[in-house]
Design brief:
The complex is a heterodimer of chains A (119) and B (235). Chain A is 82% helix and 0% strand. Chain A is mainly α. Chain A has a single domain, classed as Fumarate reductase/succinate dehydrogenase, transmembrane subunit (3 helical TM bundles of succinate and fumarate reductases, Up-down Bundle), CATH 1.20.1300. Chain B is α+β, with helices and mostly antiparallel strands. Classes of the chains: A mainly alpha (119), B alpha+beta (235).
C-alpha cells in the first residue's frame, strides 16, 4: 500500500470525498454570490449582506472548502509532475517547496478571509 | 502506396530513437496494420522489431500506438487508423522501449500482480466446482475478457506519471473482477490495499482507457464500482 504524509487526509477515499463535498459547498456559495450580483450591488447592500451572521459563516465555510479543495487538487498535480521521475534527483525537493508555498498561501488566504469578515 | 513512419530504436547502435519512413504497396487492400508491419519486415527491412503472436486479437501481444491511438495492430484495419494516406506507428507510450516497437512491460505486470488477480477462498474446495447463480456469473461479464494488452494503461496519463504507484485501468479492471466474484472471500483485504491516494484515486475519469480498449471493455466503470465499494466499506 502506498501512503503519502503530505496528502490532505492520508487516505484516497477521504481526499476524494472531501473534494466532492467541498465542491458542492463552493457551488452553493457561488450561486448565492451570483444571485446577489444579478441584482443591483452597491456598498450598502454588499455590506449589509456580509454583516449577517449566516453569510459570515457561509463565507468562512466557502473559504475553508476552497483551501481543502485546492490542496487536494494541487497535491495531485504536484505528485504527477513534480517528482523525481519527471524532474530528476531534485524532484522531491522542488515538490516539497511548492507544497510548502501553496499550504502557506492557503492558510494565509483563510486567515485573511476571517480578518475581513469578522473584524 | 501507403506512407508509413515507423519508430526505430536499437539501444546497441542508436544514440536516440528516430522515425523511419517506408512506402508500402498495399495493393489497394484494406489490410490490418500488422499486415503492413509484416510487409515492411519482409520486403523493406528485416530488422524491424515488434511483438505479435495470434494475429487475431486474442493474445494481446501487438499493442501499438497507431496514428496517435493505442490498439492491437492485428485487428486495426487501415481504413480505421489511416487518415490522408499516412500511418505513424509508435510503441505503446509511457513504458521503456527495449527495441523499435517492443516495450518493457515490467511496471505494467507489477501493478497487475499487486491486485492479486486470482481467486482467494480458504474454505475447502467442493468436489466438483464452486457454484454461482447465473446472476452472480453475469457480474463478471465485461471484466474477465481483458487480455492484458496494456493499450488502456499506456493511454492513461495518470499511469504515465505514476506507473509505480497507480495501479492503472487494466489492473483495476482485474481488481474489480475479483471484488465482484461471489466465490472470492478476500474482499476486505483487497479493498484495504486499494484505499490510498494513488492506487485507485489517481484515476480522474478521463476515459482514455475506454476509448482505446480493443475488447470494448470499460475500466472507468469498474473503477467507479471500486470507489463505491470503498465508500460503502468506510461509511
Amino acid at each position: 500500500m502506498v501512503t503519502s504524509v503530505t496528502s490532505f487526509s492520508r487516505t484516497g477515499l477521504s481526499d476524494w470525498l472531501i473534494q466532492r463535498v467541498t465542491s458542492l459547498v463552493l457551488l452553493a456559495y457561488f450561486i448565492v454570490i451570483a444571485y446577489q450580483l444579478l441584482g443591483s450591488v452597491d456598498y450598502t447592500s454588499w455590506r449589509s449582506l456580509f454583516d449577517q451572521t449566516w453569510m459570515k459563516v457561509f463565507t468562512l465555510m466557502a473559504a475553508l472548502s476552497l483551501a481543502a479543495h485546492s490542496w487536494i487538487g494541487l497535491w495531485s498535480v504536484f505528485t504527477d509532475y513534480l517528482t523525481e521521475r519527471m524532474l530528476g534527483p531534485k524532484g522531491n525537493a522542488i515538490r516539497l517547496l511548492c507544497e510548502l508555498g501553496v499550504s502557506l498561501a492557503l492558510v494565509g488566504y483563510v486567515i485573511w478571509v476571517i480578518v475581513i469578515i469578522w473584524s | 502506396m501507403l506512407e508509413v513512419s515507423l519508430y526505430r530504436y536499437n539501444p546497441e547502435t542508436d544514440e536516440a530513437p528516430y522515425m523511419q519512413d517506408f512506402s508500402v504497396d498495399t495493393g489497394g487492400r484494406d489490410l490490418m496494420v500488422l499486415d503492413v508491419l509484416e510487409l515492411i519486415k519482409a520486403d523493406h527491412d528485416g530488422s524491424v522489431t515488434y511483438r505479435r503472436s495470434c494475429r487475431e486479437g486474442v493474445c494481446g501481444s501487438d499493442g501499438l500506438n497507431m496514428n496517435g491511438k493505442n490498439g492491437l495492430a492485428c485487428i486495426t484495419p487501415l481504413s480505421e487508423s489511416v487518415k490522408s494516406d499516412k500511418l505513424v506507428i509508435r510503441p505503446l507510450p509511457g513504458l521503456p522501449v527495449i527495441r523499435d516497437l517492443v516495450v518493457d512491460m515490467s511496471l505494467f505486470y507489477a501493478q497487475y500482480e499487486k491486485v492479486q488477480p486470482y481467486l482467494q477462498n480458504p474454505t475447502p474446495a467442493p468436489a466438483i466446482e464452486r457454484l454461482q447463480s447465473p446472476e452472480e456469473r453475469a457480474q463478471l461479464d465485461g471484466l474477465y475478457e481483458c487480455i492484458l494488452c496494456a493499450c488502456c494503461s499506456t493511454s492513461c496519463p495518470s499511469f504515465w506519471w505514476n506507473p509505480d504507484r497507480f495501479v492503472g485501468p487494466a489492473g483495476l479492471l482485474q481488481a474489480y473482477r475479483f471484488l465482484a466474484d461471489s466465490r472470492d472471500t478476500a474482499t476486505e483485504d483487497r479493498l484495504a490495499k486499494l484505499d490510498d491516494p494513488f492506487s485507485v484515486f489517481r484515476c480522474h475519469g478521463i476515459q482514455n482507457c475506454v476509448n482505446v480498449c480493443p475488447k470494448g471493455l470499460n475500466p472507468t466503470k469498474a473503477i467507479g464500482h471500486i470507489r463505491t465499494m470503498l465508500l460503502n466499506r468506510a461509511t
